[in-house]
């Protein structure tokens, strides 16, 4: 991650376009190697998907997008950087995640594999079989798990044991479980892939999140997710790098001369900036980049919290609302096909339970979004309220404020999220493995000195910064050869 190069590249310079967690991670890796780095951000504040504000619900801190971080808290980069020196404090809820079912039953996810298994009855042994060993080895495997897939791993045998189940469709792996609560609990996490659960590789994101979460917990950043990128930016400043906000890059001619440039942008945006500088086949791949479904986001101000029927849900940092495995799988198929389901999959974040600084007295921020078709032009607010009310009767009566962001507004807030696609591209088989084009080096743009470091590259979405690490390492390798 750059540090091994020491100050070898003193005198070299780099531009980074975009100040999300991957752009800032790339900038830090380069700066630690002695490169003079300038980060350009179009918005007036840094952070991309990790921004946090109190403007939507006055007095309450609300994350714009990325909110809970089971992979970031154990990220090889963030762990190595010791960002606590710059104010980053991880906070854990007493229960990681709950998936309630009609009739009062629920799948409950604890950080402890044993405690989770104990609550899954007949499926306890199977849960332990799937997660006990991988979670114990997570820190040893994280560099391989959260790196580019097409490379020689550091621990091939252990990675093979972990990776074999990730190739399966989530619907196939869910058959391992006999109880509805275990199937639903697994499916709700697998649904973070925004893909129909019968497709190959849809187990991968769910297994990664669950394994990392069992090792480190579903942490939130105290003061909001912005604390992650604020800490990275503070470290970058100490390393001599600088960040320029309010500066949108539309053409390559706007960028200062530098040996390398990295883009924390969606591939379509990179193609627009570079124009004819891109080889024709790469420009075609970038402009044909496939998008996934969208997120329709509603933040609520809730007095006295949500009156969940399930008592564990009242202590959970995350609640997944999708009903049974079959119901959730049908909703994801509909969304992928461009149809809005009557009961969409809804993610609910109660970050204030781990981080009370986000609340104002007895009024608490509730972070929610529903999976909807890409570019969905309707209003999913009522569908979200109805799903919460289904498992928390009386919720409507506790709402004292709300802030709605449609798929179009999500995209305006962050252009990487076209159509509300907060994963920066469909995580189908090809794009998950290769990124936006078929290549053994997903971070190389195809023009000497230019690199892609956004969540469109492996290992994909999250505030872990590892896409930035992969691109920065590729840039440093390039610098050794010029």
Radius of gyration: 21 Å
Number of domains: 2
CATH-scheme architecture of the largest domain:
Alpha-Beta Complex
Strand order of the largest sheet: 7-6-12-13-14-11-15
Distance between the termini: 20 Å
Q: Percent helix among the residues?
A: 25-40%
Output the CATH topology of the largest domain.
Polyamine Oxidase, Chain A, domain 2
List low-confidence stretches. Answer: none
Q: What is the structural class?
A: alpha/beta
Could you name the CATH class of the largest domain? Alpha Beta
Which band does the percent of strand residues land in? Answer: 15-25%
Quick one: overall form? globular
Mean pLDDT: 94
Number of strands: 16
Number of helical segments? 18
The biggest sheet amounts to: 7 strands, mixed
Protein name: Pyridine nucleotide-disulfide oxidoreductase domain-containing protein 2
Subunit structure: Interacts with COX5B; this interaction may contribute to localize PYROXD2 to the inner face of the inner mitochondrial membrane.
Domain Amine oxidase: 23-251
GO molecular function, one term: oxidoreductase activity
